Amino acid sequence: MLREWTAAEISIKERKANAEIASSASKFWKSNRNVADGIPFHGWAQPTAPKSHQGRHAMASEETKITSGSLIAAEKVEGTDVYNLQGEKLGTVDDLMLDKVSGKAIYAIMSFGGFLGMGEKYHPLPWSTLNYDESKGGYVVNLDKRMLENAPTYGMNEDFRWTPDYGRQVDKYYNAPSYW
Questions:
Q1: What whole-number distance in Å separates Cα of residue 104 and Cα of residue 111?
Q2: What is the DSSP string of 23-62?
Q3: What's the pLDDT tens digit per position in 88-102?
Q4: Cα dist. 116→91, 134, 169 in Å?
Q5: How far, rounded to the nearest angstrom, does the alpha carbon of residue 8 sit from its chain's CA centroid?
Q6: How many Å apart are CA 179 and CA 118, to the nearest integer?
Q7: Which residues contact 97 (CB under 8 A, 6 or more apart)?
Q8: How far, in Å, CA of 112 to CA of 98, rounded?
Q9: Which residues lie below 8 Å from residue 86, measured CB to CB, with a gap of 6+?
Q10: Quick check: 82 and 96 in contact, CB under 8 A?
Q11: Superfamily the domain 74-173 falls into
Q12: 168 alpha carbon, distance to own chain's centre
């Protein structure tokens, strides 16, 4: 039996695929600055990664699969379930917000609510509110559904822009130390 994908799942998969393409292109262009390296520019052609760069992304992906201890690849955090203290599943981690300079996770973006992807919202949770529970294979937060229903959110299809004020609002709501 074939599985039907919800619009939300397709949207998430498209975002991830687009992010991978953008990341690969960015890495390629950063490592192949022909003009800056003194190599003559011969017009725009379809970029092809040099042999020295081919397979690098695949190797990095393979290397992140063999992490141990408390180190984990971001792609493995995405999709991880989030539970409350009573063991009820609240949602799943859809994305992470990282500090560009330190590389530390600041927020986990959790999807919550809705039915079959309809009406679902994103809930940014300060990373400090999550505790990993090996027995559950997911994160546990000291929150209940009522608290999440009133929490700062944004819609899945909303044109949303993160601001320091919004970050402070999230941190204050969860009584977490502010990143801002």
A1: 21
A2: HHHHHHHHH--TTTTTPPP---------TTTTTHHHHHHH
A3: 999 999 999 999 999
A4: 12, 27, 29
A5: 15
A6: 31
A7: 105, 106, 107, 108, 109, 124, 162
A8: 21
A9: 144
A10: no
A11: PRC-barrel domain (2.30.30.240)
A12: 20
Best CA proximity match to 141, nearest among 96, 54, 81, 52: 81
The answer, as to whether pTM is greater than 0.90, is no
With cut-offs at 50, 70 and 90, classify the pLDDT of residue 169.
very high
Q: Is 165 helix (H, G, I), strand (E, B) or coil?
A: helix
Average pLDDT, the chain: 74
Q: Which of these, 137, 76, 143, lies nearest to 112 by C-alpha position?
A: 143
CA distance 73 to 65: 7
**152, two tokens:** 């700062």
Rounded to whole angstroms, the Cα distance separating 180 from 126 reads: 12
| Residue carrying the six token digits 């940014």 | 124
Q: How large is the average pLDDT for residues 76-92?
A: 92
What's the full length of the chain, in residues? 180
